[in-house]
Write a structure and sequence with these properties.
alpha+beta; Flagellar protein FliL; 45% helix; 4-stranded antiparallel sheet; elongated
């Protein structure tokens, strides 16, 4: 009988200790979540669709500038925006490219990627009215000449051609 009571008391103490430890651990993780976000935590990485900007001169389309971007921001604040940040980002890409006609996409000599990224980041934050967008990352930048649009060079091979 004494062994049974000692076992019951031991189980009760072990269970109580585990509950206290679990409660304290959850309180610490809540405090960590409320802390200021670090460069790698607390931010959402939002990937845009492909942004396609026609490149034209003298009323003729010469090709298309294609970009896929990623921007980082606090997810809670992004959800509160009335106008999606991706729409603003697309507008800023068009504004930057048409505002700098000296950019020659065929040679890539006059295209400064760092300046492009910083212009987009600062322009987004200016339009939003706060320093929300932490960074704009380039996932893909391409120039597609008009002659290659719709050719087999830009489309994957169909199943009939591969058989």
């Amino acid at each position: 009988m004494i062994k049974l009571m000692a076992t019951a008391i031991w189980i009760s103490l072990a269970t109580t200790g585990a509950l206290i430890y679990a409660f304290q651990s959850s309180m610490q993780s809540d405090a960590e979540q409320d802390a200021e976000p670090t460069p790698f935590a607390g931010l959402d990485y939002v990937r845009t669709g492909i942004i396609s900007v026609p490149v034209f001169n003298d009323g003729k389309v010469h090709g298309y500038f294609l970009a896929r971007l990623v921007y980082t921001a606090e997810g809670r604040r992004l959800a509160q925006l009335k106008l999606p940040a991706e729409a603003l980002l697309t507008d800023l890409v068009y504004t930057h490219l048409y505002g700098h006609p000296e950019i020659d996409f065929t040679t890539r000599k006059n295209f400064d990627v760092e300046n492009f990224r910083e212009t987009l980041r600062s322009g987004l934050n200016e339009r939003i009215g706060e320093d929300l967008i932490r960074e704009v990352l380039v996932e893909q930048i391409d120039y597609l000449p008009k002659g290659q649009v719709g050719t087999s060079q830009t489309r994957p091979a169909s199943t009939e051609e591969s058989q």
